[in-house]
Design brief:
The chain contains two helices and two strands, in the order E-E-H-H. It has 105 residues and is mostly helical. A hairpin with a 2-residue loop joins strand 1 and strand 2. Helix 1 runs antiparallel to helix 2. The chain is elongated and about 65 Å long.
């Protein structure tokens, strides 16, 4: 009997083209799924960049004996990063959704 599953470390042929991210078919989402994932990726980017900025400010304040306000991590780092990632994610997922809607069956 032949095994049609891919070997370890290889993706199947249909999972390595446009509309796939790490084997997940992101091109098959509807408009609500695309909206949810786009906004969610913006939130993840906001919280991750804010966390890293707070750690950087903490280390910088400790080593340089400065007093930089931690609120700058939200307004100058986290918010712009989250908005940029959300715009790119919504643009990419929206383009994939529009291409799928305009594609003839």
């Amino acid at each position: 009997m032949t095994d049609s599953s891919p070997t370890h470390g290889q993706l199947p042929a249909r999972a390595s083209g446009a509309g796939y991210l790490f084997g997940v078919p992101i091109g098959d989402f509807g408009w609500f799924g695309s909206l949810l994932i786009g906004v969610g990726s913006g939130f993840i980017a906001f919280f991750a960049s804010t966390f890293l900025a707070i750690l950087f400010i903490l280390v910088y304040n400790t080593t340089a004996h400065r007093n930089i306000d931690f609120a700058l991590s939200y307004s100058r780092i986290g918010l712009p990063a989250g908005i940029i990632v959300m715009i790119f994610a919504l643009g990419y997922l929206g383009r994939l959704w529009a291409k799928r809607m305009l594609r003839p069956n």
